[in-house]
Write a structure and sequence with these properties.
Blueprint lengths: L3 H13 L24 E5 L8 E4 L3 E5 L4 E5 L2 E10 L2 E4 L2 E4 L3 E5 L5 E3 L2 E3 L2 E6 L5 E8 H12 L6 H22 L19 H9 L3 E5 L2 E2 L4 E2 L9 H4 L25 E5 L1 H7 L7 E7 L9 E6 L2 E6 H9 L18 E3 L2 E6 L8 E2 H9 L4 H8 L4 E4 L2
Parallel strand pairs: 15-22
Antiparallel strand pairs: 1-12, 2-5, 2-9, 3-4, 3-8, 5-6, 6-7, 8-11, 9-10, 11-12, 13-14, 13-23, 16-21, 17-18, 18-19, 20-21
Bound molecules: zinc ion.
Zinc ion binds next to loops.
């Protein structure tokens, strides 16, 4: 049995009474010193409109300069105050703040706003290299995850699946931040919508797994995850450039995602699109096959014969090329094919299973596995069998 629902019920009770640190209005995480990014904090480069970012604050705030001096302070800030740069001077509304870098720091547990969204942590204002200001949200990894998880997995998947997702997302973010130094706020890293996106259950999943990451040979791994593996995962080296050796390099069987809406799908692709994907001149399709021809399974390559010519590309590239820029119902949703491909009236018909790149945690599989009683540690062991679950000190 899983202890999840029991713990959840107890947590919910005290949360309603307003007395536990797991509630959404928990005391704010203590900010790091000006200019410092301690371990366990990440920088997220927020998107800005062309006419400059707009900032706001719901309580007191301060601006600190690079020398560690307070250069401005206020009680509140209208949510649409324009941040602009004139030469070396940054202005917030009518107020000149000075030169970059600067830090806008909430006081007394307030929240800062960028555009329509509120963010935990602080905001760093940096030179964007194009004469403007880049707004960076410096936030603890735990607070960051509270704004990420609801966009990656709905609450209805349940606490244990959410906890597995929290560990995967924490690992992925820290591995990426270690490599590049900062994160995107969107699918290029993970979708991060800040404080307004938070839910109680997702925050609880983050809190109950605080600091826990997946490692291999002492390093945090980029723990890729996906919607639906369709019966079996893919190997990282078949999908991504330079994945870490020795981890995520074997396929994992999963039948727990059968309830996913994308467990089975059929797509009919235009013959010209198929020819272009493998570099052939447009011609009537004669045959399309996979190598090896394992069904259901993930083939290595797709072979196309058209106009008397033959060409083949890796299955991962084929999926990307026929899907990019096309509507969802015209995309190949995965590289896991359920049956031999068919050519019908000049079009390629593909029956497939699952949705996503295929590597790592299967989200619908995690939901199904949890419903059968698996806790998050067991879920993680299935999808990352060569990784260790450790707690960051
Ligand atoms: Zn699955």
């Amino acid at each position: 049995m899983t202890p999840g629902p029991l713990r959840l019920a107890a947590g919910l009770l005290v949360c309603v009474l307003g007395a536990v640190p797991s509630c959404a209005d928990t005391p704010p995480t203590r900010l790091p010193r000006v200019g410092e990014r301690p371990a366990g904090w990440v920088d997220v480069r927020l998107a800005a409109p062309d006419d400059g970012p707009r900032l706001g604050a719901d309580r007191a705030w301060e601006v600190w300069d690079g020398d560690g001096e307070v250069v401005h302070a206020g009680d509140r800030l209208a949510w649409d105050t324009v941040l602009a740069r004139e030469g070396d001077v940054v202005r917030l509304g009518d107020v000149p703040l000075g030169g970059l870098p600067l830090e806008v720091r909430p006081v007394d547990g307030g929240t800062l706003r960028v555009g329509s969204r509120r963010y935990r942590g602080l905001l760093r204002l940096e030179d964007d290299g194009r004469g403007g200001v880049r707004v960076v949200n410096r936030v603890s990894i735990e607070d960051y995850l509270r704004g990420v998880l609801p966009g990656e997995m709905p609450d209805r998947f349940g606490l244990e699946a959410l906890k597995a997702q929290a560990v995967a997302a924490r690992s992925y973010a820290l591995a990426e931040a270690a490599q590049r130094g900062w994160l995107h706020p969107d699918v290029r890293s993970q979708v991060y919508k800040g404080r307004d996106a938070e839910t109680w259950l997702a925050s609880e999943a983050v809190r109950q797994t605080a600091g826990q990451v997946l490692t291999h040979e002492g390093r945090v791994i980029p723990a890729w995850f996906q919607s639906t593996c369709g019966g079996g995962t893919a190997r990282a080296q078949d999908v991504f450039l330079d994945p870490p050796d020795g981890v995520l390099d074997r396929r994992v069987v999963c039948a727990d995602c059968r309830d996913s809406p994308t467990w089975s799908w059929t797509r009919s692709l235009d013959g010209a699109v198929v020819c272009a994907a493998v570099g052939l001149p447009e011609a009537p399709l004669e045959e399309v096959r996979t190598e090896p021809g394992l069904y259901p399974g993930r083939p290595d390559r797709v072979v196309v014969v058209a106009g008397g010519l033959e060409a083949s590309v890796p299955a991962v590239d084929f999926r990307d090329r026929v899907s990019k820029g096309r509507p969802w119902d015209a995309q190949l949703l995965s590289t896991r094919w359920a049956a031999p491909p068919r050519v019908e009236e000049g079009r390629l018909v593909v029956e497939g299973h699952g949705w996503g790149h295929g590597v790592g945690l299967c989200q619908y599989g995690a939901r199904g596995f949890a419903r059968r009683g698996a806790g998050y540690r067991v879920i993680l062991r299935r999808y990352y069998p060569d990784a260790r679950l450790v707690e960051l000190s």
